[in-house]
Design a protein that fits this description.
heterodimer, A: 112 residues, mainly beta, 7-stranded mixed beta sheet, 4-stranded antiparallel beta sheet, B: 113 residues, 6-stranded mixed beta sheet, 3-stranded antiparallel beta sheet
Chain lengths: 112, 113
């Protein structure tokens, strides 16, 4: 198993554009979480999905949305990009009834 | 408020010296605490979880509920320990399979030869 995978690896967008980031969890993991990591800070929770339902949302504006598909993969969408959205976006998957989260390599988003 | 604080951004020690990375937390419930590590050009990975009370790569961490701390320790640092270390608090509940990790800002450990 390759672990949690994310695509793309890097992305450059312009202010006002929209972006979609993708995540594939470890096989058998039904929960996916998204985190934003700004340079020099720890990861900040954005969303958690379990069995295709949103189970948690962090303190992020409505420009951020996500969904989980029947195969448990997930997408994070960000609309109307701002310079401050530039960050490393991490996806983590968790097997049911476990605290342990396994992280992907992240997608580096740069907004110019 | 739920919060994790790592007071040191950078900790620099010589090889063979003891290491202690500090972590304090604020949480109203019963905390589940973790240490994650990120080596250069690698993904974030779990190092320790307090519930298992295990030692990984010579590191240990003890939960002190009285001082609300979960400091990471190693008696003799190695150069390969150089990395970014994050303390994290989990709010997961099994009943709803819902929750999140709350991370501290991280401490860079630099082990000099």
């Amino acid at each position: 198993d390759a672990g949690v995978t994310q695509s793309p690896t890097h992305l450059i967008k312009t202010r006002g554009q929209q972006v979609t980031l993708r995540c594939s969890p470890i096989s058998g993991h039904k929960s996916v979480s998204w985190y934003q990591q700004v340079l020099g800070q720890g990861p900040q929770f954005i969303f958690q999905y379990y069995e295709k339902e949103e189970r948690g949302r962090g303190n992020f504006p409505d420009r951020f949305s996500a969904r989980q598909f029947p195969n448990y993969s997930s997408e994070l969408n960000v609309n109307a990009l701002l310079l401050g959205d530039s960050a490393l976006y991490l996806c983590a998957s968790t097997v049911a009834n476990s605290y342990e989260q396994y992280f992907g390599p992240g997608t580096r988003l740069t907004v110019t | 408020a739920q919060r994790v604080t790592q007071p040191e951004k950078l900790l620099s020690v010589f090889k063979g010296a003891p290491v202690e990375l500090k972590c304090n937390y604020s949480y109203s419930g019963s905390p589940e605490l973790f240490w994650y590590v990120q080596y250069s050009r690698q993904r974030l990975q779990l190092l320790l979880r307090h519930i298992s009370r295990e030692s990984i790569k010579g590191f240990t961490a003890d939960l002190n509920k009285g001082e609300t701390s979960f400091h990471l320790k190693k008696p003799f640092a190695q150069e390969e320990d150089s990395a970014m270390y994050y303390c994290a608090l989990s709010t997961f509940t099994f009943s709803g399979n819902t929750g999140k990790l709350i991370f501290g800002q991280g401490t860079t450990l630099q082990v000099k030869p």
